[in-house]
Design a protein that fits this description.
The complex is a heterodimer of chains A (227) and B (237). Helices cover 55% and strands 7% of the residues of chain A. With 227 residues, chain A is α+β, with helices and mostly antiparallel strands. Classes of the chains: A alpha+beta (227), B alpha+beta (237). Chain B: One of its GO terms (molecular function) is glutathione transferase activity. Chain B: One of its GO terms (biological process) is glutathione metabolic process.
């Protein structure tokens, strides 16, 4: 009988960028895992028992113990499999900077996507403007705090911020097609350069959902339109 | 006249200084105070008036313009929980987070839950009225139920000693009873939340924590004034 300890299982949904983050990290570190696609309209008893507080994906189960929240899972993977490539910097101050900007990205920038999706006309223009301002602040902050990290394509391996930012922003074409154009090479040259380089990374290419499939999913989810 | 050697030495001292920007009442910088005090680390405190922010604060935290900011060797650190992790990684004595990766993930999860869900839901109880407040109470107590269960078989969230999650929930030990008094609602009673009630007592009275609380009467005045602002906004039509 195969020993279940040491087994890694990821509960996720294919369209969730938070789940892609975890898959990227596992693949980067060469950690074998089983993937379970969870139907969020019909959550299984097992799934609910693994994340009773939030009832959301992703959930990582390792040695029978479950961990929820994508960023917490990423740090867990980093600490548990203390191998190269390292996702986070070694220096505590650099780590603090990475954590700060990741929180900013998730709590400020990502949070502005829904207002864009649900609004129309002038309200949407306003929401896009706010999103763009936050993105600009992020751009300037990252450039200032990690001067050696950019441009990305000069480095060989994906890091924590690349994973967090890349999994959403690399899907920008689908979002632009279904919802609205929210950033551009003119307005956000640094981010665009970063995203374009990330999209060319072989692992990103492998893990990002196919464009057409994502467009259909976004139409269904955001516009209630079905293919 | 200072020699060039003295000037360099002074510069080194300034660079090596640890400075904490805080306000007299905000609970988030208090987490940093506790972490530093628990580890026996020396630091300077700069009290900010958020209605009149110093240029230094704006320079160190241009994004949020908030406290806490911890400046170490001239380099600013922002966000209380991020600062706590930095402190734990830089000064290894009296560790705040456990060593085991799974336990660390669990601690981070509950600290995040506290900030993302528990605190906003309790704040909602404080500022809302009528039916909105009733609904807010249900949500807050649901959240508190999850937190209560985390204390099963433990004195503190960290076990026998105070740790990361205890510091993250520290505001609960002082501000909750205060807010309950000001708005006249009891959220945590000993029967429904026996473990949390005991934790509140143990935490609030612990050495270092005990000495750090801002003056209660001043806090009451502050929150009474805040509640009046919210109540006047929601005056019945």
């Amino acid at each position: 009988m195969e020993e279940k300890k040491g087994e890694v299982v990821l509960f996720g949904t294919w369209a969730s960028t938070f789940c892609t983050r975890v898959e990227l990290a596992l693949k980067l570190k060469g950690i074998p895992y089983e993937y379970v696609e969870e139907d969020l309209t019909k959550k299984s008893e097992l799934f609910l028992s693994l994340n009773p507080v939030h009832k959301k994906v992703p959930v990582l189960v390792h040695n029978g113990k479950s961990i929820a929240e994508s960023l917490i899972i990423l740090e867990y993977i980093e600490e548990c499999w203390n191998t190269t490539p390292k996702l986070l910097p070694e220096d505590p101050y650099q780590r603090a900077k990475v954590r700060f900007w990741t929180n900013y990205y998730d709590q400020k920038i990502m949070a502005r996507l829904l207002p864009i999706i649900v609004s129309r006309g002038e309200e949407r223009e306003k929401a896009i403007k706010e999103f763009n301002e936050l993105l600009k602040a992020f751009e300037e902050g990252i450039n200032k705090d990690f001067p050696e990290e950019f441009p990305f394509f000069e480095r060989k391996t994906l890091g924590y911020l690349d994973i967090v930012v890349g999994t959403t922003l690399c899907n920008y074409e689908a979002f632009h097609e279904v919802v609205a154009v929210v950033f551009s090479p003119e307005k956000n040259p640094v981010i665009m350069g970063w995203v374009k380089a990330l999209k060319n990374h072989p692992l990103m290419k492998e893990m990002l959902p196919p464009h057409d499939k994502l467009v259909d999913k976004m139409r269904e989810k955001y516009l209630g339109q079905y293919p | 006249m200072a020699s060039s050697a003295t000037v360099t030495a002074n510069q080194l001292i300034i660079m090596a200084e640890l400075k904490l920007f805080r306000t007299w009442s905000s609970p988030f910088p208090l987490r940093v105070v506790w972490a530093l005090d628990f580890k026996g680390i020396q630091y300077d405190t700069i009290f900010e008036d958020l209605s009149n922010k110093s240029s230094l604060l704006l320079q160190y935290n241009p994004i949020y313009k908030k406290v806490p900011v911890l400046v170490h060797n001239g380099k600013p650190l922002l966000e209380s929980l991020v600062i706590l992790e930095y402190i734990d990684e830089t000064w290894k004595q009296t560790p705040l987070l456990p060593e085991d990766p799974y336990e660390r993930a669990t601690a981070r999860f509950w600290a995040k839950f506290g900030d993302d869900k528990v605190l906003p839901s309790i704040w909602n109880v404080f500022i809302k009225q009528g039916k909105d407040q009733e609904e807010a109470i249900v949500t807050a107590q649901e959240n508190l139920g999850f937190v209560e269960r985390q204390l099963t078989g433990k004195k503190f969230f960290n076990g026998e000693t105070i740790g990361f999650v205890d510091l993250a929930f520290g505001w609960l030990a002082k501000l909750l009873s205060l807010w309950e008094e000001v708005c006249g609602v009891t959220l945590i009673d000993h029967e429904k939340f026996p473990l949390l009630s005991e934790w509140i007592q143990n935490f609030a009275d612990a050495p270092i924590i005990k000495e750090s609380w801002p003056p209660r009467d001043k806090l009451i005045t502050k929150y009474q004034a805040l509640l009046e602002v919210y109540t006047s906004k929601e005056a019945p039509k």
